[in-house]
Amino acid sequence: MLRTITLIAIVAISFSLAFGQDDSKVPCRIIYVPTEQVVVEKMLEMAKVKKDDDVFDLGCGDGRIVVTAAKKFGAKGVGIDIDPARIKDSLATMRKAGIKADLVDIRQGDALTVKDLERASVIMLYMLPEFMEKLEPQLKARLKPGTRIVAHDYPFPNMEPDQVVEFETGGSRPKFLYMRTVREAKKK
Ligand SMILES: C[S@@+](CC[C@H](N)C(=O)[O-])C[C@H]1O[C@@H](n2cnc3c(N)ncnc32)[C@H](O)[C@@H]1O
């Protein structure tokens, strides 16, 4: 009898932990899947990252994209992630690479409400379609002409890429990278 009650209690607690959270305040729940380093390098190459760039990774995971841009090209970086565990990972990546906070700024927060998005000259993304759809109008309204946007695997719903690269990494399926440069607004 005691065993049965204990078992029921364990199942009930597990269910409430798994499904009982209030998700209504979470802006966009996307799990962490790191981009392979070879793909990171390709994304930076497609964006033609150089020293005077400000590279933003929206949903930065372990921070390798911005840290690699800083280490390889001396570019400034901003990495934003909603998950505190990823912020710890990003800071560890910076420490390992010897990159300081004056070059790479790692922030915890929602990548859909970035206060200084206008500063970006390169935007990197590996996010799901739901996020891309929400972000797209902001990018159109806020980014300056010449800003390069590189999206891994999930393109924007309405923004045609200038370049699509299919990329074999030896995994189970090829990777797709979508690059677009922001144009001057059309004069009315
Ligand atoms: C697929 S991973 C990509 C990580 C990294 N950009 C890369 O390419 O290796 C997506 C990341 O976005 C973060 N994330 C999900 N929703 C977010 C949001 N609304 N704002 C900021 N980060 C978010 C997750 O915590 C996760 O680390």
How would you describe the overall organization of this protein?
Helix content is 35%, strand content 20%. The protein has helices at residues 2-19, 37-46, 64-73, 84-97, 129-142, and strands at 54-58, 76-81, 104-108, 122-125, 148-152, 163-167, 175-181. Strands 3-2-1-4-5-7-6 form a seven-stranded mixed sheet, with helices on one face. α4 links the parallel β2 and β3. The longest helix has 18 residues, at 2-19. The chain is globular. The N and C termini lie far apart (77 Å). The relative contact order is 0.15. Mean pLDDT is 87; it is low at 1-24. The protein binds S-adenosylmethionine. S-adenosylmethionine binds next to β2.
How do the strands and helices of this protein lay out in sequence?
Blueprint: H1 2-19, H2 37-46, E1 54-58, H3 64-73, E2 76-81, H4 84-97, E3 104-108, E4 122-125, H5 129-142, E5 148-152, E6 163-167, E7 175-181
Parallel strand pairs: 1-2, 1-4, 2-3, 4-5
Antiparallel strand pairs: 5-7, 6-7
Helix pairs in contact: 2-3, 3-4
Bound molecules: S-adenosylmethionine.
